[in-house]
């Protein structure tokens, strides 16, 4: 993530300290506790709906300064 530190949450609009780093779409994404919990809730919801979930089912949208938003990839339903 160019221009972004791994010590600060990489989620768009967040400046909290990062406590976790996850790899999505081949990029290391630092996340604060709140955004990490949000990521887990999304994965849990998907697993509940479809029986399984993985980080591969999520994708990143990145803005010019390297901040990200995490989106669910649409699965075959």
What does this entry look like structurally?
This protein has 77 residues and is an alpha+beta fold. The relative contact order is 0.24. The strands form 2 sheets. It has a two-stranded antiparallel ribbon. The chain has one helix at 33-50; strands spanning 20-24, 27-31, 58-62, 68-72. It is 23% helix and 26% strand. The protein is globular. It starts with 19 loop residues before the first strand and ends in a 5-residue tail after the last strand. The chain is built from 1 helix and 4 strands, in the order ββαββ. The chain has one domain (1-59).
Mean pLDDT: 85
pLDDT < 50 runs, ≥5 residues: none
- The coarse silhouette is globular
Counted up, domains total: 1
Order of helices and strands: EEHEE
Could you tell me the strand content as a percent range?
25-35%
Specify Rg, calculated over alpha carbons. Answer: 13 Å
| Strand order in the sheet with the most strands | 1-2
Q: What is the strand tally? A: 4
Main sheet overview:
2 strands, antiparallel
Structure in a nutshell:
With 77 residues, this protein is an alpha+beta fold. It is built from 1 helix and 4 strands. A two-stranded antiparallel ribbon has the order 1-2. A two-stranded antiparallel ribbon has the order 3-4.
Topology:
Elements: E1 20-24, E2 27-31, H1 33-50, E3 58-62, E4 68-72
Antiparallel strand pairs: 1-2, 3-4
For this entry, give a set of tags.
alpha+beta; two-stranded antiparallel sheet; 26% strand
């Amino acid at each position: 993530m160019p221009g972004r530190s791994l010590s600060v949450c990489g989620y768009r609009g967040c400046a909290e300290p990062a406590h976790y780093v996850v790899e999505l779409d081949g990029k290391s994404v630092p996340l604060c506790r709140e955004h990490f919990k949000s990521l887990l809730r999304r994965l849990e919801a998907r697993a509940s709906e479809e029986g399984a979930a993985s980080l591969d089912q999520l994708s990143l949208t990145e803005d010019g300064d390297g901040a990200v938003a995490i989106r669910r990839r649409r699965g075959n339903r």
